[in-house]
Amino acid sequence: MITAIWQKFRFSMPNPHPIMPTRFHNAMRTLPWIFLFLTLTACNAEKKQFLTDKNLVILEEKVSADRKHKLISYHFDLGAFDYSRMYWAIIPTNLDRKEPLNDYILPDGYKAVDWNAKDEAMVEKWTPYYYKNEEVKLQSGDEFNGVILELK
Q: What is the per-residue pLDDT across 1-50, written as a single tens digit (0 to 9) for each?
């Protein structure tokens, strides 16, 4: 469909030099490639995250009293003043470094704060500045990856 529109548009524009394309024609030839590039880069939104990633920056790590789980807050350093969004995850302390962190990340709109005396993760609701993937409602007493949550 895009090709048909392009063919019609291309031949409707006058070209003063039929042998040499104009700047406009050159720009219009690159437009489909730009759309293709943007489409392909947008499809890679769910990239796997690992503890071994070179640009992973762990800002905070709090181990539970029973030493079975830990809360981590981290982001990625993308270079040149470009940091990714913040992530909060509840991971087992013996997590294999080759296992992706994606399954342990708290849902968008919630962040891990600390542990309480009963080894429950204290989680706080907040409004993210970015687009949420999905709306998830957590309540005190819910279980997340084997840990009971206490909503502040």
A: 666 665 555 555 565 556 656 666 666 667 676 665 555 555 445 689 98
Residue with tokens 């800002």: 59
Question: What does the alpha-carbon distance between residue 91 and residue 68 come to, in Å, rounded to a whole number?
Answer: 9
Q: CA–CA separation, 29 vs 57, rounded Å?
A: 41
Angle between helix 2-12 and helix 23-42 axes, rounded to 10 deg: 160
The number of helix segments (H) and strand segments (E) in the chain equals: 2, 7
Answer whether 112's CB lies under 8 Å from 121's CB: yes
pLDDT tens readout for residues 68-125: 999 999 999 887 777 788 999 999 999 998 899 999 999 989 999 999 999 999 999 9
98 backbone φψ class: left, alpha, beta (φ>0; ψ -120 to 50): alpha
Taking the C-alpha atoms of residue 129 and residue 18, their distance in angstroms, rounded to an integer, is 51
> Which helix or strand (DSSP H or E) is residue 122 part of?
strand 121-125
The 8-class DSSP code of residue 119 comes to S
Distance CA 77, CA 96 (A): 22
